[in-house]
Amino acid sequence: MKRLLAVLGCMLLSATLARADTIRLGASLQLTGPLAGIARYYRDGYELAVDRVNAAGGVKMGGKVYQFELRMLDNQSDVNLSVRQYVQLITQDNIAILLGPYASDYVLADSSVAEKYELPMIQGGGASDQIFSRGYKYGFGVLPVASRYFSSTVEAMPKLTPAPKTVALLFADDAFDTAVANGTRKLVVQHGMQLVLDERYSNNATDFSSLLARIKSVQPDAVLVAGHETEILNFIRQAKSLNVNPKLYAFTVGVQSDDFRRALGPDADYAFGMTSWLPIASAKDPYFGDGAAFAEAYKKRFGYDADYHGAAAAAVVECYAKALEAAGTTEPKALRAAIAKLDFASQLGRIRFNEVGQIDLPQTLVQVQKGKLVPVYGDTGFMNKPLYPMPEWKQR
């Protein structure tokens, strides 16, 4: 009996020491529900980066080495449940490090929990301008500002032949897409084009027939849509069914996604989108080597191509690894100060937060060409030839 008690005591001591040498990271994500398609990039990006940081030796603080331990909860695409789960992570699960959720509406709600408890939250899932206009001290984001998501698209349009002169803008009624629309209106006018249709639709809409009828009636040269992937899939399918044929259409999300291109097959061709990340070797990274190596590791691990959502998720974990080593502690105020001072190269781009907690990343215009995602236009001009104008559906 004494020997058994001694063994059990050693086991408990070992378990306690093991827990003491771990840093727990927690997130609430849409692992099920209508937003699960994109949210899986965050789940997988978090997992891959945590494993890579641990494999590289973990995080060194105060003369000790710590391993990351990841806890993710499923909010079932319910923002109210997400808020409750972040409270749970903080008050019950004793999570020291908060990873952000996906989607701006969720970040707006969940970052308020982090602010209330004065815990830093770095997130790569929300880009709405509203997130960074509230004067919060503990929130940081690694996506470009939403109001400029269509910047590369609109900048490229006047350089096309024939140049689009009229534009239709559609957007969902959530925080992110509303912010995209607010910025895009100004960009369209600044670049000498006329906005002939400016329409909001309900979040998670499935029927676009009335909007497509209005597009058909005004016949814009270009259609820009800010929405979620499922909405955009429905929009394209119904545009084909109703034979709506602008010269160009571009979307905030979906185009970058492997699932999107598989779901539509050849009907995905000619669609434009934008990305703040490209899988390139010039994007150096302390944990993956570079952006190309990150993309390769991601594809090998999960069986599908990464996009900027997955890259942003991985960058969030990398930020914490760097900040924890710089702070030497998980104490929130010291950690927050270390995050604010970060400045390093990553596979996502340069990580350096401005005074409101956001980084500056350029958007690159991309297009689906014969089933592949091709970078078309960026800061230096055209990178590859765009397929334009888009042929009518019956001519494909």
Short summary:
The chain has helices at 2-20, 36-55, 79-91, 104-116, 151-156, 175-190, 209-218, 229-241, 258-264, 291-302, 308-327, 332-340; strands at 22-29, 59-61, 64-74, 97-99, 121-123, 139-141, 166-172, 194-201, 222-226, 248-251, 272-275, 284-285, 289-290, 344-346, 349-351, 364-369, 372-378, 381-382.
Q: Could you explain how this protein is built, in words?
A:
With 396 residues, the protein is of the alpha/beta class. The chain has 2 domains: 216 residues, Response regulator (Rossmann fold), CATH 3.40.50; 161 residues, Rossmann fold, CATH 3.40.50.2300. The chain is 40% helix and 21% strand. It has 12 helices and 18 strands. It has a 6-stranded mixed sheet with strand order 2-3-1-4-5-6. The protein has a 4-stranded parallel sheet with strand order 8-7-9-10, sandwiched between helices. Helix 2 runs parallel beside helix 11. The radius of gyration is 22 Å and the shape is globular. The termini are far apart.
